[in-house]
# Entry
Amino acid sequence: MARDDLGAMVARLGRRLLAMEQPILARHGVSMWAYVVLNGLAGGSVRTQAALAARIGADKTRLIPVLDDLQERGLIEREPDPADRRVRLLALTDSGREVHRVVRDEIRTAEEALLEGLAPADREAFVRALVTLS
# Structure
């Protein structure tokens, strides 16, 4: 059976997912990069901006304006590390955790609607494969 290359299919799916997520993010006043940062911090604090950049696959110099905006909005905090005052610990605030939860839940609901055409076992296999490959 002839099919497109994986890259072509993943690119189309990626564009579709981004288009699906954009209105959700806009409704909550969060950019895609801001959401990526919130996701990156959802698992716990990160010791440095460089460590966060590595965790989320971003250029640390491009990350600073996103962090500044999130901090100004009270969604993250950057506190001096008691063990090394030159280092800033990054963490979600309570408001940041709430924004992340609400946006993530809406995105997951939209993802479920997208995947509803697949049988439940296929859905689970698809998500498992994405987790493994990503």
Summary: The longest helix spans residues 6-27. The chain is about 65% helix and 10% strand. The beta strands are 76-81, 84-92. Residues 29-133 form a domain with the Arc Repressor Mutant, subunit A fold (CATH 1.10.10.10).
